[in-house]
Amino acid sequence: MTQEHILRAAEALVKEKLARDSSGHDWWHIYRVVQTAKAIAAREGADGFVCELAALLHDVADEKLNADPAAAQRELEDWLAASGTPAAQVGHVLEIIGTMSYKGGARPPMRTLEGRVVQDADRLDAIGAVGIARVFAYSGWKGRPIHDPSVLVREHMTEAEYRDGKDTAINHFYEKLLKLKELMNTPYAKQLAEERHRFMETYLQQFYAEWEGER
Ligand code: ADP
Ligand code: NI
């Protein structure tokens, strides 16, 4: 198996698994993360094969997308073991996937350059024009409102309000998206994040102005 064969097989696996997702983790999210990871890897001198394979597989065992995440994780491990990927790289890819998710809290930094690259690529897909599209797609999927001026920042909500679904798409910008710029690992991702971040700030200004009929 050449690296190219393994990557194309991984692509087929992911397309099949994520084809019907509408939560913002569909195949095209994977496609964008792969494209961005490859671009960052080339600039930062990271291993392109490991970055692309990890980017392709990073969401297949995600707990949000699998009724049985432990089974999905085992399936992923079995698939990799049988894929022809050398054992050291299998270990590296699994480590990246297992440690890259944001999950709110401060996590230890990614151990390897390839991990930092793929994490940056995934985070970049949550900001900018595409990131804005994904927030609203995800909120709709969850049945949440676009915006409620009385619910601006989650820190100001009680637990009950939050559980009752008062979380809004606009609130998610403050909860997560506007924080991602500072979390980029690599210089090239920081550069990309700057422009995407500015785009979101401009978007929010326009949004509030339109909300009040001012523009
Ligand atoms: P990851 O890709 O790291 O798994 P998430 O699953 O948390 O990230 O987010 C996937 C997409 O869904 C992102 O674009 C994110 O902005 C959006 N999203 C996640 N949580 C919320 C939320 N509470 N409200 C709106 N959008 C959300
Ligand atoms: Ni992702």
UniProtKB/TrEMBL annotation:
SMART domains: HDc. It comes from the Bacteria. Pfam families: HD. InterPro entries: HD/PDEase_dom, HD_domain. Residues 22-136 form the HD/PDEase domain. PANTHER family: HD_PDEASE DOMAIN-CONTAINING PROTEIN (PTHR33594:SF1), SUPERFAMILY HYDROLASE, PUTATIVE (AFU_ORTHOLOGUE AFUA_1G03035)-RELATED (PTHR33594). This is HD domain-containing protein. It comes from Paenibacillus whitsoniae.
